[in-house]
Structures are given as structure tokens and as C-alpha cells.
């Protein structure tokens, strides 16, 4: 639907269309005619939606800060699940993973060779030398946020610690590509090159995703992608950067009993950091990490 240029913009900013999204819409239409994959309007968040997502993301970060302040040797992943659940609910949020497609907990806790979607358990005690990804996702006032961090439990050997640190750096390399009119493939390619240059492998089957009004929206964010390909990044697009980077093989297995836990095929460790990012007019805004 074309909005006349003097009418209020479709995004609800209150500004005239000609002074708000008109130029962006024209540019996207032009790129679409040239055969590029452009985000549909539904994926471009309005100012009101962005504010809602920011508040959800702020709570998601607070949950992870709480975990960071309390995690350590002797803590069980079941306790982490309880903390995440209670902190989120006490602050008016809902843990997005709980019952999501049947997931049985409020958070994913992925230790050592677990790549992602680890299920917390009161029987799983964190030991000195472990590395763990804690992946939190929050619904607040209907808006979704999602980020994850790695934690080193006590003293961790240099190889494993380097994997954790380099995986964070790989995310930062991807983030640097998040600028309007670049492509999603530029993000994945930057992550992938950085990781492989350091001798790591990158998980191929699982990636990031659009997010905001739902937990998982378009686009899918691959970390085995070619620069210059994939969706055009336009202001208002919100997605996650969350590569899983392995010390050994890129190959993974899914637990046959619970259908969730993803592990490296060779039993070597895997690391993941996840940030949620908004494409802005001149670059990006990290919503949560
Ligand atoms: N938090 C994960 C992500 O980053 C999704 C986990 S789905 C769940 O996309 F059900 F396991 F929570
Ligand atoms: Co995610």
C-alpha cells in the first residue's frame, strides 16, 4: 500500500511519510527490482516496537548479569534455571524458552561439548575447568529478546579459554558488518573467516534469526554464508548474531532421547555468544548481549 507523502508515515512516528520512511521504501523497491532480497515491511520495526524490544532486552541483560554474579564451581545448571525463571518473573517478564516447542526449562545451559539447547538439571554440577553458555530469552510486554554469554568456571585451560574469547571476537567481527545496505551474508562471512583463520570450525545447521514480535522471525542468519548475498540490511531490522564455534569438527549430533541437546560429533568443546542487534540509519544498536 502506498502512503501519500503528506500523510502520517506507516510506522506511527507521527511524521509525514515523505519525511520518514518514503526514501527507505523507494530504495528497497529499487533494490528489489534489481533482484536483491529485501526485508518486507513487517520485519522493519516501528519506533514504538523498538522501544518495546529495548525494554525486553534490558531485562534479558539483567537476567544474565544476575547469572554472571552468582555462577561458579558447585552451582548446578538446575539452579541457574531457577534463577533465570524467578528473576524474569519477579521483573514482570516471561522466560521465552519455557514450553517453547516443548522445551522443558526457562534457559538453555550448554556445557563443554554441548553446542546449544542444553537442558538444565539439578544433577549437573559445574566444575572448575568447565565452559558454559547460558542462553536467555525474555518476553516482556509481548516483545522478545534473546542473548547468551559464555562463562569460564574457575581456572580454564588456555585452549578452551581462547575458544571462548575468540568466539566473542568473531561476534564482534560480524557486528561490524551490520550497517544499512550491507547484506546478511557479510555478517556470517566475517564471523566464519575470523573463526576459521584461528583454526576453529563453525556449526553449519544452526544460526541466528530475526526477533522482536516473535521469538524466531525471518531472516535466518547463517554463519556459513557468502559476503554480498542474503537479505539486504535495512534500518528497523532486528536479528541475532549467535555463531557456535567448535574446537574440532563442525559436525554435530542431536540427543535422541530428549530431542534437544546438541553436541559436537567429536566430543570437543564448543562456544557461543549471542547478541541481538538493530540496524539503524547509520549503523547498528546492540539491544542485548
Ligand atoms: N535461545 C535459542 C536461540 O538463540 C533458542 C532456544 S529454543 C529453546 O535461538 F526452546 F531451546 F529455548
Ligand atoms: Co537466538
Task: Describe how the helices and strands are arranged.
Elements: H1 22-33, H2 47-70, H3 77-90, E1 94-95, E2 108-111, E3 114-116, E4 131-140, E5 143-152, H4 158-176, H5 184-197, E6 201-202, E7 208-210, E8 217-221, E9 238-241, E10 244-246, E11 252-254, E12 262-264, E13 270-272, E14 275-279, E15 284-288
Antiparallel strand pairs: 1-4, 2-4, 3-12, 4-5, 6-10, 7-8, 9-14, 10-13, 11-12, 14-15
Helix pairs in contact: 2-3, 4-5
The structure holds 2-amino-4-trifluoromethylsulfanyl-butyric acid and cobalt (II) ion.
Task: Name the descriptors.
single chain; 289 residues; alpha+beta; Creatine Amidinohydrolase; 4-stranded antiparallel beta sheet; 3-stranded antiparallel beta sheet; binds 2-amino-4-trifluoromethylsulfanyl-butyric acid; binds cobalt (II) ion
Describe the structure in your own words.
- The two termini are 36 Å apart.
- The chain is globular.
- The protein is an alpha+beta fold and 289 residues long.
- The longest helix is centred in the first third of the chain and has 24 residues.
- The chain has a single domain, classed as Creatinase/methionine aminopeptidase superfamily (Creatine Amidinohydrolase, Alpha-Beta Complex), CATH 3.90.230.10.
- The protein is built from 5 helices and 15 strands.
- Strands 1, 2, 4 and 5 form a 4-stranded antiparallel β-sheet that branches. The chain has a 3-stranded antiparallel β-sheet with strand order 3-12-11, with no helix packed on it. A 3-stranded antiparallel β-sheet has the order 6-10-13, covered by helices on one side.
- Helix 2 packs across helix 3 and helix 4 runs antiparallel to helix 5.
- Helix content is 29%, strand content 22%.
- Cobalt (II) ion binds next to strand 7.
Amino acid at each position: 500500500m502506498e502512503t501519500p507523502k503528506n500523510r502520517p508515515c506507516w510506522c506511527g512516528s507521527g511524521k509525514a511519510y515523505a519525511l520518514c520512511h518514503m526514501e527507505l521504501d523507494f530504495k528497497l523497491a529499487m533494490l528489489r527490482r534489481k533482484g536483491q532480497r529485501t526485508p518486507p515491511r513487517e520485519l522493519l520495526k516501528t519506533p514504538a516496537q523498538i522501544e518495546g524490544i529495548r525494554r525486553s532486552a534490558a531485562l534479558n541483560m539483567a537476567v544474565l548479569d544476575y547469572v554472571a554474579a552468582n555462577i561458579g564451581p558447585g552451582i548446578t545448571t538446575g539452579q541457574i534455571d531457577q534463577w533465570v525463571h524467578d528473576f524474569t518473573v519477579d521483573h514482570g517478564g516471561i522466560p521465552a524458552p519455557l514450553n517453547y516447542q516443548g522445551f522443558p526449562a526457562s534457559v538453555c545451559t550448554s556445557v563443554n561439548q554441548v553446542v546449544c539447547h542444553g537442558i538444565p538439571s539439578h544433577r549437573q554440577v559445574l566444575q572448575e575447568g568447565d565452559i558454559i553458555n547460558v542462553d536467555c530469552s525474555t518476553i516482556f510486554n509481548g516483545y522478545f529478546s534473546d542473548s547468551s554469554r559464555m562463562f569460564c568456571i574457575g581456572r580454564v585451560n588456555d585452549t578452551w579459554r581462547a575458544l571462548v574469547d575468540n568466539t566473542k571476537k568473531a561476534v564482534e567481527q560480524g557486528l561490524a558488518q551490520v550497517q544499512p545496505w550491507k547484506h546478511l551474508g557479510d555478517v556470517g562471512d566475517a564471523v566464519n573467516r575470523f573463526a576459521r583463520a584461528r583454526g576453529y570450525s563453525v556449526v553449519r545447521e544452526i544460526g541466528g534469526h530475526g526477533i522482536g514480535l516473535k521469538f524466531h522471525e525471518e531472516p535466518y542468519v547463517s554463519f556459513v554464508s557468502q559476503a554480498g548475498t542474503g537479505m539486504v540490511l535495512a534500518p528497523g531490522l532486528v536479528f541475532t548474531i549467535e555463531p557456535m564455534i567448535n574446537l574440532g569438527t563442525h559436525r554435530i549430533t542431536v540427543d535422541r532421547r530428549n530431542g534437544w541437546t546438541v553436541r559436537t560429533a567429536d566430543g570437543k568443546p564448543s562456544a557461543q555468544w549471542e547478541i541481538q542487534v538493530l540496524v539503524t540509519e547509520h549503523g547498528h544498536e546492540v539491544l542485548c548481549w
